[in-house]
Amino acid sequence: MTTQNTCSCSSSTLPEEVRRFAEDRVAQSRARSFLIPTLHKLQNAVGYLRDDHIEEIAELFGVTPNQVKGVASFYHFFSFEPKGACPISVCTGTACHVRGAADVLAKIMKLLKIEDGERTEDGLFSIGGARCVGMCALAPVVIIGEKVYGNVTPDQVEDMLKEHGFKGDET
Amino acid sequence: MEMQSPVANALDMVRKQRTRAIWNLFDTKFNVDYRITVGSATCEHAAGSLSVYETFQSLIAESGTPDISVGHVGCSGRCDMEPVVTVISRAAIPVKYVKVTPEIAKQIFERHILNNEIVEDHSMRHIEGWEYIRTIATISGAHDEGSDLEDKLVEMLEEHDLAKMVFVNRSPYGGEDPEEPSLHIYPDNVTYPQMNAKKLEKVVQEHLGRDKIVAEFQDNQSKVSNLFIPFFGDVHFYGKQLRMALRNCGVIDPESIDEYLSVRGYEAVARTIDSMTPEEVIESVKRSGLRGRGGGGFLTANKWHFASLNDAKEKFIICNADEGDPGAFMDRSIIEGDPHTIIEGMIIAGYAMQATQGFVYTRVEYPLAIKRLEIAIEDARQRGFLGKNLFGSDWSYDIEVRFGAGAFVCGEETALIQSIEGFRGEPREKPPFPTDRGLWGCPTAINNVETFANLPVILLDGDQWFSAIGTGQSKGTKVFALAGKVRNTGLIEVPMGTTLREIIYEIGGGIIDDKAFKAVQTGGPAGGCLPDEFLDTSVDYESLKEAGSIMGSGGMIVLDESTCMVDVAKFFLEFMVDESCGQCTPCRAGTKIMHGILEKITNGQATMDDLRKLEEMCDVVAQASLCGLGKCAPNPVVSTLRYFRHEYEEHILERKCRAGACHNLIQYRVIADACVGCGACRRKCPARCILGAKREAHEIIQEMCIKCGNCMTACKFDAIEKGAFIDAEVTS
Q: Where do the DSSP E strands lie in B616-728?
């Protein structure tokens, strides 16, 4: 199934770099193996996988949109909803678990008033539990945006969030 | 496909490149009075090593002296002490500084680099209670004889008044013949094989006492795995270790192919291509006894052998770096610290199997590992070590990086193949095994990162030497990610046969805050928890399995008295519920049912009947699931039930969590005698459930308490206690 389709519709919103990456790959043999790399490119560029983008990618790869979504939904890393400007991951690996990650996560949810998997109203933060990030010696680990925090305790959470623009405070 | 006769110039090609590499390094960073290396890995960066590096850069520029250089190295494994900075000067044991900040970097620069005075307060040795030494003397060889000699050496050093200058170390297997004791002196890098007391006396007098090498005893057949010792051997944490897979981690710059070449990099593969047939490589690795380090423990050479029987046009090698086990970071550290060793290992495996293409399948969560691997692959291509007619041979082979997107099940071979092909990572039944029908239907051998990292060592130091290390069925070493409630956390590599006690108490330094050890968890979600009566278990595939856990890929999490074993089992089941691919019912529904029961137990709502159901489900899921992931899913429950059944029963019958970890089974209470009535706890209580007048003992209304623990943190008088005081009255 390596038919090459060049999308002729003028309303394409697929970022140019993603389109070029995909077009280049579908011309190669075993093109299907580049579907996941393409989805990575798309999520990097847009932040999440939008339905209209999925349709365009399906067309490029000569598969149906539900097949693309079927693949994407299998993997935790792909998101179908926009994330916050500063996505927060609280590592849920074993070392982090036994060293109190759950209390840290609870504190973050309480301060931001959102649940795991949600985004704040102002779009600044979103929380997503992360699979082990492999920094077990620093457990518990929290990643906010690109910054990694190690040996986090619940009392440090508020200051950490403030570094990234968190304003709300509690009494 | 018939193999053409190998060409005889691969080794020449590598040697020439190594000579050029060493010249380059001398011109740029090695030929200096002081060479500074700064740890660079994901965890080092998180600890702040990048700004330390920049500080040194600008200090060097300001000072204007040409005789100082600064470079990056991978992670040396001492994770709780990062960032680690090493100062290397001529003919001296390098000084390791820990937890370095830009401020400390300035001190190191001013005092050590400019004024030749070690900043003891921040040196790794000093923190471990030792002063700086000049020389490392490592005794290696068979256990009893080696220990005898070690004692004698210590005595002799005392006699000759050298004890303060020489650090005596015991490396289990450093010599030519692992059975025979030998002595290695660093930083002079001299090896004295076939040691006995008489020879030892002379070496102590001449070499250590008068700095004169005893030429008649000397033999400089140094093992590549000894490379690490002159850099880190003076620190106890590294003393018990034998670094083969990790030999270059913390020693070389992972982004420099020149540095890898300078430590005999690509020599093993060049020798292999020059002078061995593919069958001979398979035979040699078979003799070494190397087994898969990903956990399965399958003989590595057998996979290649089966794949080589097939005469398909295309064959593939896959490096499985999809390290999904929570609590494991061996693969990340090896790739980040020494990516070329993986590439070299993959070329050796590819040659043995006459593969046409290699893939590294790694996690998207490891961006630095991906970046370093891509740099290394490109550099290797440029040098002619990958691609068409690599090393001037008539064989062509290249390596590509592919990454997953966060699915634990993709570590399973058949699921991994599905994922590379661009599908949902759902496992399929075996047989056919991937060595028969794998990626795109072609014969495919899938090996783990650490397995590949061992191959250059086996081919350079010899399969016979390798097979003498370890226990009956488990040869060589194993890398472990030591984490949890242990004092020294980090990445370690020990010979198979080392005991859990040695790892946790000697290398790991014991339990944090001197709490009581409860259990050690090995093998990740497919493994188990072993209690203290198993501390003397030898670490090898068979012994761990017999004890009720598994070797797994190398996660080792230490649990103390404040860890609840039911909660740990629940944690792993929660992971499995999330990660079950959903294809087969026993795993999809079974893990969910088990998790539900565990939830009830930790909430104090379960009955003994639930416990029976839980045990039944363990059997069903283990027997009826399709793939290894499902079959092993009940293991954390099975092993905790086997050794910690009393904790399950306490939760159920007494509604008590002895570790105080299960929130619904604990209470916070005010110790009336200690409470001064300051009101600090009352103000911090988000449930407004603390009552009491000023200067009078307060009280917590248990029915409203949400067990957040704020009161305990707020109290300055230690007047709040937490524990399992729940009695029948409260819960009924």
A: 667-670, 690-691, 699-700, 720-723
H helix runs in B97-245, sequence order: 102-107, 114-115, 124-127, 143-159, 197-203, 210, 229-232, 236-239
Q: Kindly list the structural domains of chain A, giving each domain's residue range(s) and its CATH number in brackets, ordered by start.
A: 16-74 (1.10.10.1590), 86-163 (3.40.30.10)
pLDDT digits 0-9 by tens, A12-67: 899 999 999 999 999 999 999 999 999 999 999 998 999 999 999 999 999 999 99
Average pLDDT rounded to a whole number, residues B363-369: 91
Q: What is the pLDDT of residues B486-539, one digit of tens each?
A: 999 999 999 999 999 999 999 999 999 999 999 999 999 999 999 999 999 999
Q: Report the residue count for chain B.
A: 732
ipTM of the complex: 0.88
In this structure, what token pair is assigned to residue B646? 């009393």
Domains annotated for chain B, with CATH where assigned, are 34-89+94-127 (3.40.30.10), 135-233 (3.40.30.10), 257-459 (3.40.50.11540), 477-560 (3.10.20.600), 565-654 (1.20.1440.230), 666-731 (3.30.70.20)
Are B424 and A71 within 8 A, CB to CB? yes
Distance from C-alpha of B324 to C-alpha of B255, rounded to nearest angstrom: 25
- The span from the CA of B309 to the CA of B353, in Å, is 9
pTM equals: 0.92
Report percent pLDDT > 70 for chain B.
96
A45-56 residue pLDDT tens: 998 999 999 999
Residues of A in contact with B425 (CB under 8 A): 74-75
Mean pLDDT of B172-198: 82
Q: Which residues of A touch B488 (CB under 8 A)?
A: none
Chain B positions in Cβ-Cβ contact with residue A95 (cut-off 8 Å): 326-327, 483-484, 489, 557
